[in-house]
Known about the structure:
Serine Threonine Protein Phosphatase 5, Tetratricopeptide repeat, about 400 residues, mainly alpha, about 0% strand, 21 helices
Amino acid sequence: MKKIVLTLLFFTTVFAQTSAMQLFDESRQALSNGNLELAGEKIRAAIDADKGNDQLRKEFDRLNGLRNKANNSNRAVQDGRFDDAIIGFKEVLDSIPKYIPALFGLAKAHEGKKDYTSAITYYKQALSLRPTHEDSKKSIQNIEKKLYNSANKDYKNGELQAAMSKYKQVLSINSRIYQAHHQLGVLYKAMGNVSQAIQSYQSALNIKKTYDKGWYALGIAYKDNGDVENAKKAFQETVRLNKKHYKAHKSLGEIFIDLEQYDDAVASLKAAIAIKSNYSAAYHALGITYGKEKLEDYNRSAEALEKAVELSPREMLSWFHLSEAYNELGECEKAKEAALEAIDLKKNFGGSWFQLGIAEYCNATGNKSNAINHFERARNDRQWRKMAEYEIDRVRNPEKYE
C-alpha cells in the first residue's frame, strides 16, 4: 500500500511540474504578445501548480516589478514628471516591446513635453499592434488640433516659418486635413511663392471640392500669377458654390475687365454690390468699367465712383478716376475737387496732376498758365510724361490742334 501511495505522489509531482512549466511557457508567450496581465495570471497559476519552484517565483517578482514600474510611470505623467515617465516606460518596453499601455504612456509623456513627433510615433506603434486602440486615435486627433491651432496663432503673430513647420507636421500626421493644405497656400503666397501656393490650394480642393474659400484663394493666386483664364474658372466655381460670395463676384468682374468683356464685368460687379451694398471696391471697379476706353458711359462711371469715395474717402485711385469721369463730362470744378483729393493722398502720382491740368484748362475756357503748371508736375511721373507734354503743347499751340 505504501508503495502505491509513493508512486501516486511521484506521478502527481511530475504532472504538477509539467503543468507548471507549460503555464510558464504560456506566460512567456503572453508577455511576448505584450499582455502583461495574462502573463501574470499564468505565472501565478504555475506557482500554484509547483509551489516549490524558485524560478517561477523569480519570474513572478520580475513581472510584478514591471507592472509597478508602469504604474509609477503613469503617475509620473499625471504629476508632470515627463522625463521620469519616459525612463520608466522605456525600461518596461525593453522587457515587453509590445506592451500597449507602456507605448501609450510613453506617447503621453512625449506629448506632455510637446515633442509631438515622438508622441505620434509611439501612438502609431500602439495602433499598429491594436488598430482599434481608441485612446491612441483620440490622442493623435488631439495633437492634430493642438498643432493646427498653434500654427494659426503663429501665422497671426507673423511667425510664418514656425507656422509653416507646424502645418507640415499636421499633414505628416494626417494628409487629408484640407484646412492645413489651404493655410500652407496662404503662407506660400505671403512669402511670394505663388506657384507653390497654387499647388497647396489644389491639394486642399482635391480633398474637399466644395470648399468655396479654397476656390476663391486659388483664383486670387492664379490672377497674381498672370493666369487669367484659370482665375476666371476658379472665381466662377466659387460663386457657383456660394452665390453670396461678394468678393468672388467682384474679382470675377475684374477678370472680365481684363478680358474686355465689359457687360459681363458690370453684371458681376452689380451682383457683388447687391450682396454687400457698402462694398467700395466693387463700386470702384464698376466706375472703371463704365469709364474711359471701356464702356465710356461717364455719367454711370461718375455715379459709381462717387459712391466709392463716399465709402472709402482715402482711396486715391477712386478720386483720380472720378476726376477723369468729371472731365469727360465737362464738369471742370468737380474734376478739380476730385483731382485735389487724389493729390492730397499721393502727391507724386502724375495722373492726378494730369487730370487737374485738364480741369484747369477746361476746354480752353480756364486758366492756361495754371494748367501748364499742373501738366509740368505730371511730367515728373515717367508714366505720364508723354501725355503731359502733349497737353502742354496743345495749350501753348492750340492752332496746331484745330
